[in-house]
Amino acid sequence: MIVGIGIDIVELDRMKEVIEKNPKFIDRVLTEKERQLFDQLGEKRKVEFLGGRFACKEAFSKAFGTGIGKVKLTDVEILKEGNGRPVVVDSPFEGHVHVSISHTDQTAVAQIILEK
Fold it and tell me: What Enzyme Commission number(s) apply to this enzyme (predicted)?
């Protein structure tokens, strides 16, 4: 049974500005394992990755019904399967978390579905 749906969109130009002005923002968004993936990427792909993960975590907080604050961004960890598919491997939700992330040159969008 679906118990929550969340969606979020991020402007990648804005994300790039945030990274340049405040590099510590990266560690407020990414877990240690996510950061390891991030550090292996080129500059353009880093912006897409961080934008996508940020959008996922915002979408999760909407689906979970709390918003960011009660759930920290680092409480949700999104890694990838061998084929590159994103997968939520850790979160405060007890059930299955479905995730989808997409990018254009200007935006990253993510959708989360929580299922029990």
Answer: 2.7.8.7
